[in-house]
Amino acid sequence: MLAQAVRDAVVELPETHRGVLILSVYEDTSYGEIAAALEISPGTVASRKNHAVAMLRRRLAAWETR
């Protein structure tokens, strides 16, 4: 159940944030490699990942109280 909620929440992320999160967390790609692939700075990669994690935390907050 929680795994499905996480998958659903990841799918709902904005594409720019979802891509960075998937590459970083699921594919274990370095910030430098992500930055090069997406033609953005490593700082932007970090920012997008941080925002994605914050959005996931907000969407999954209900699961913390169970």
What distinguishing features does this structure have?
mainly alpha; 66 residues; 5 helices
Q: Compute the average pLDDT.
A: 94
Unreliable spans? none
How are helices and strands ordered from N to C? HHHHH
Strand % is under 5%
Question: Using DSSP, what is the number of strands?
Answer: 0
Number of DSSP helices?
A: 5
Q: How is the main sheet built?
A: none
State the separation between the terminal residues, measured CA to CA.
Answer: 12 Å
Q: Which value, in Å, is the CA radius of gyration?
A: 12 Å
The shape is elongated
Secondary-structure-derived class: mainly alpha
The helix content is over 70%
Summarize the structure.
The chain contains five helices and no strands.
Protein model, in words:
This protein is an all-alpha fold and 66 residues long. It has helices at 2-12, 15-26, 31-38, 42-59, 61-64.
Secondary-structure blueprint:
Layout: H1 2-12, H2 15-26, H3 31-38, H4 42-59, H5 61-64
